[in-house]
Design goal:
The chain has 8 helices and 11 strands. It folds into 2 domains: 2-180, Protein Transport Mog1p, Chain A, CATH 3.40.1000.10; 188-254. Helices cover 42% and strands 25% of the residues. Helix 5 crosses helix 6 and helix 5 packs antiparallel against helix 7 (234-251). It has helices spanning 2-14, 18-21, 93-106, 163-175, 190-215, 223-232, 234-251, 257-272, and strands at 24-26, 36-37, 44-46, 54-56, 65-70, 81-88, 110-119, 122-131, 138-147, 150-159, 178-180.
Length: 273
């Protein structure tokens, strides 16, 4: 949780860096690295961000921040943001909140427990933090769930005098937080789930064949680098990966964009790990 405070306070002190703001893309184009899976957690966490907000490149973020979206610029030049953090935590929600309160108050920030919030993942703690900054103050809202020996923290942030403007969007997005022990659970139809798995199995077979062929030539490349090269090869992309994504988007349109992207992320990870 100290990592959470450090990340959020760094935004408060210096604002969103030009590097971060220059590396934004449409939320609809999320790739695997932005889906909230932690190496310490078997689960995948997602949320539905406000419409039209842009996703920040994960490479510009802290390792525990799995996904961040940035809203429209406002008069004070501090755009609203939302981010999803997953960090290892072997304790109770009550103890986690005590630590969050203690850390914030130690830095002179105001922390308030707002009770419980019903999310798609279940009951989450809802809390509020007011931080001092060069913009005249910032307000944050956290939805926190402790599960699977991890803390899942979804945070909404805006300048204090602008927070009310985005409150409804923040509240809706906070309630959309979902945690899946198995991302395939989003596909309810057993036939469609089996079809998805069999289709990916063919792609995986083609990927492994291409990898074996490439590695037959002596090289200093590591296994991970070989996999990256094969994955980004135009032939693999056009003949296998792009058609797979198109099929998933078209044939599984009962799923939300976030659920579709989480599935794509899951299969991307299976190929490259």
């Amino acid at each position: 949780m100290k990592k959470l405070y450090k990340f959020l306070h760094s935004i408060s002190l210096i604002g969103l860096s030009l590097t971060l703001l220059s590396r934004l893309e449409a939320v609809e184009e999320l790739v695997s690295s932005r889906i909230g899976r932690s190496s310490d957690s078997p689960s995948i966490a997602i949320f539905i961000p406000p419409k039209g907000w842009l996703a920040a490149d994960q490479e510009a973020l802290s390792s525990h921040i799995k996904y961040m979206v940035v809203g429209p610029k406002v008069q004070n030049e501090m755009p609203p943001t939302m981010n999803l953090m997953i960090e290892p935590y072997n304790g109770t929600l009550k103890d986690y909140l005590k630590s969050v309160k203690r850390i914030n108050e130690a830095h002179g920030d105001s922390w308030k427990d707002l009770g419980m919030l019903k999310t798609k993942a279940g009951e989450a703690s809802l809390s509020q933090v007011e931080m001092r900054s060069k913009w005249g103050g910032e307000k944050l809202m956290h939805a926190i769930i402790v599960r699977n020996k991890c803390a899942y923290v979804l945070t909404a942030t805006a300048a204090k005098n602008e927070f009310g403007r985005f409150y409804q969007e923040f509240y809706k997005a906070l309630r959309s937080l979902q945690i899946y022990d198995d991302i395939l659970d989003v596909v309810k139809d057993p036939m469609k789930k089996a079809h998805l798995e069999s289709t990916f199995a063919k792609i995986q077979k083609a990927f492994e064949a291409a990898l074996a062929k490439a590695q037959a030539t002596p090289s200093f490349l590591s296994q991970a680098n070989w996999k990256e090269q094969i994955f980004h090869n135009p032939d693999f992309q056009s003949n296998h990966w792009s058609p797979f994504k198109t099929m998933l988007k078209s044939n599984y349109n009962e799923l939300s964009n976030e659920e579709q992207n989480a599935l794509i992320a899951n299969y991307y990870t299976k190929l490259l790990n």
